[in-house]
Design brief:
This protein has helices at about 20-30, 55-65, 70, 110-125, 175-180, 240-250, 255-260, 305-325, 330-360, 370-375, 380-390, and strands at about 1-5, 10-15, 35-40, 55, 75-80, 80-85, 90-95, 105-110, 130, 135-140, 145-155, 155-165, 185, 190-200, 210, 215-220, 225-230, 270, 275, 280-285, 285-290. It is of the alpha/beta class and about 400 residues long. The protein has 2 domains: about 1-80 and about 105-185 and about 275-390, FAD/NAD(P)-binding domain; about 190-270, 2-Layer Sandwich (Alpha-Beta Plaits), CATH 3.30.70. It binds flavin-adenine dinucleotide (FAD).
Amino acid sequence: MNTRIDTDRDTDCVIVGGGPAGLMLGLLLARRGLDVTVVEKHADFLRDFRGDTIHPSTQELLGELGLLDEFLARPHADMSRVTLSWHGTELTLADFSRLPTTRKVMTFMPQWDFLDLLADAAGRHPGFRLLRSTRIDQVIRDEGRVVGVTGTRPEGAVELRTRLVVDASGRDSELRAAAGLRPTGVAAAMDVLWFRLPKRAEETYPFVQAGAGMIITIDRGDFFQIAHVIPSGSWTGSDADVMRMRERLLRISPRLGAAAADVTSADVHLLRVRLERLRRWYVDGLLCIGDSAHAMSPAGGVGINLAIQDAVATARILGPVLQRGTPRPVDLRRVQRRRTWPMLVTQAVQRLMQKPLLTTSSPGAPLPRPLQMLRDHRALTRITGRFVGLGAQPERL
Ligand SMILES: Cc1cc2nc3c(=O)[nH]c(=O)nc-3n(C[C@H](O)[C@H](O)[C@H](O)COP(=O)(O)OP(=O)(O)OC[C@H]3O[C@@H](n4cnc5c(N)ncnc54)[C@H](O)[C@@H]3O)c2cc1C
């Protein structure tokens, strides 16, 4: 039997997924005085496999929300330029120093800290509620319209009724499938191997090391989080794969390769990259945003920004509608229309980046053409900085 949670309080909006898109939307709707429930299947936000990049445009939003000081009080590291070491030659991929934003830096913050910040800020509004350890997998329909969701939590089954369901449960969304929405895929040529390396005091690595494959190193204070990009489908976790990985790491970065000599397949997580999108982001009563509407690749580190910008556009378009009544499909379509082209442009650029990310060459070989252009024309690095730092279509509150 289902347990109705707070039967006396059916919410204005149920948001499934407490990632960047879901929590930002929850915060923005709660600020408008709406009753919002965000449902997250995990008990906490402590997961490794999430991007750590908080873009200048997202920091601008935090400023508008009065949360910038709180954000900067959490552990973080700033980067004013994204640099690449290509067989030891340093060059700039993206320069944020001329952005029209208060903070002209990309900030690295473990995503659990960032999500905690959003959840804390949202929790200060009386209409906000976060249900953790609650997995939603079905929609409730009434005469064809989605009017709620059902799922499970440790205490038993749960049912939530609402005027609008927003699915922000990411690229593997079960709810999207339950609503009858199926993404179409665009080939992703790469996967990512993800593992930790211990860090000695004062030890550093370039952020991106490439030339004979690619390694991204995120400094998490007391350890390094390593992302190693490989051709898609090339990892089975066998001993031979681990050997090949160690050889590649040694070629790309002898020092990091040596530090990874003891890494075993049990230490390595394979993150499959997908580039997908829904043709239609909504059905009557339910809207998908963030990775649920368009799964992003890690290329360029822009998926979180896009998810946040979806949330901002959704709150701006649907907030007033929810304050007046029940959103209709035409209202949901306005959100999709607003956010489709930035998503299409971003996915197209991510597709173009796949080849350079996987390129291997011997030391001394000429730089690939796009990298030569970035090296020779500094102005281009400001354009890439704008694209990464602000996104194709920045959103304001
Ligand atoms: C390997 C890899 C690295 C990446 N690195 C970066 C990066 O550095 N920078 C960047 O900007 N982007 C990066 N991305 C892309 C980025 O992670 C996504 O675009 C972004 O997280 C999307 O945010 P979201 O809120 O839409 O979804 P998600 O972040 O996926 O959040 C979805 C939330 O929903 C919850 N959930 C799922 N199912 C249910 C359910 N049934 N019921 C309740 N809750 C549920 C999940 O637990 C999760 O908390 C990377 C992607 C990959 C694959």
